[in-house]
Design a protein that fits this description.
Blueprint: E1 14-17, H1 23-34, E2 38-43, H2 47-61, E3 65-69, H3 77-88, E4 94-97, H4 118-145, E5 149-156, H5 167-187, E6 192-199, H6 205-208, H7 213-223, H8 232-243, H9 245-248, E7 255-258
Parallel strand pairs: 1-2, 1-4, 2-3, 4-5, 5-6, 6-7
Helix pairs in contact: 1-8, 4-5
The structure holds NADP nicotinamide-adenine-dinucleotide phosphate.
NADP nicotinamide-adenine-dinucleotide phosphate binds next to helix 1, strand 5 and helix 6.
């Protein structure tokens, strides 16, 4: 959508989203920018791509965009990060906790039950739940100043259906969905809504890193009545819906499942 046709409910607002250099976070950031929303996003290692995205958003969508480095294994970094965002943006309206760890930091967390280790499980919990808590707290302080806002955590259907090796992530996604409900109860009086978007398997780098990626893809294509895997834009639409008060003003404390119909089969 061209910014000139932007619905007024979102134009000129500011989104903060973690992990927008790839996959779902990137699709979310672009979805908001296309609708005239200014975007503050984080990256971890992919600095070059982060700068390219900033440039493209400014040039193509004429929104304000800035990228910041963040390690969600150190959630307290959000405190300083939001101070930097304060210097670059005049308000914060939406916060999306999206970034996820992978590689060495999930060793012992992404494994069959008998190979699970406390360190790997703790890392996944830190990156999923603790990063959501600190990021959402910092965002909520700013949202109170503008009379409200919307917070969304990404989740996944690995807490509803069995996925090999996914116990660590599935448990932490369960935990973050519960944290979302508590946050929604405590922040509602300030006009802040808090929800989660739970995705079925989505074709991203994170999923391609699964050792059984080919089987997962084939199974999803068979299971889904829509006969395809999800893509990042499928989740970005649900996140945008939850952040837009014109569409979801009385929706809080919920998890919206976007799974192509796979979890019922
Ligand atoms: N893919 C799926 O099937 C699926 C399904 C449902 C839900 N989800 C959820 O959707 C979210 C995004 O997943 P995705 O598949 O889009 O992931 P992805 O493609 O692997 O992207 C991960 C993002 O997180 C950043 N990141 C990595 N390590 C980090 C760290 N230590 N600190 C801060 N940021 C870090 C990356 O930044 P750099 O590029 O700079 O390293 C990147 O922007 C996750 O919460 C995931 O659980 C995914």
């Amino acid at each position: 959508m061209n910014a000139a046709h932007t619905p007024q409910s979102m134009q000129g607002k500011t989104l903060v989203v973690s992990g927008a250099t790839r996959g779902i976070g990137k699709a979310i950031a672009y979805r908001f920018a296309q609708n005239g929303v200014n975007v503050a996003f984080t990256y971890h290692k992919n600095e070059e791509e982060a700068h390219r995205i900033v440039q493209e958003m400014q040039d193509r969508y004429k929104v304000r965009a800035h990228a910041y480095r963040l390690d969600i294994l150190e959630p307290e970094q959000y405190v300083e990060l939001f101070k930097q965002i304060d210097a670059d943006f005049d308000r914060i309206d939406c916060f999306v906790s999206n970034a996820i760890i992978y590689g060495r930091s999930v060793v012992g967390g992404f494994a069959p039950f008998m190979r699970l280790k406390p360190k790997g499980l703790n890392n996944i919990y830190t990156a999923t739940v603790l990063a959501f808590v600190v990021g959402a707290q910092e965002a909520a302080k700013r949202m109170k100043m503008v009379g409200g806002g919307a917070i969304v955590s990404l989740s996944s259907t690995g807490n509803l259906v069995y996925m090999p090796n996914y116990a660590g992530h599935g448990n932490s996604k369960n935990a973050v969905e519960t944290m979302v409900k508590y946050a929604a109860m405590d922040l509602g009086e300030f006009g802040i809504r808090v929800n989660a978007v739970s995705g079925g398997p989505i074709d991203t780098d994170a999923l391609k890193a699964f050792p059984d990626y080919a089987q997962v893809k084939q199974k999803v294509e068979e299971q889904s009545p829509l006969k395809r895997m999800g893509n990042p834009a499928d989740l970005a639409g649900a996140v945008y819906f939850l952040c837009d008060p014109a569409q979801s003003a009385w929706l809080t404390g919920q998890t919206i499942v976007v799974d192509g119909g796979t979890t019922f089969k």
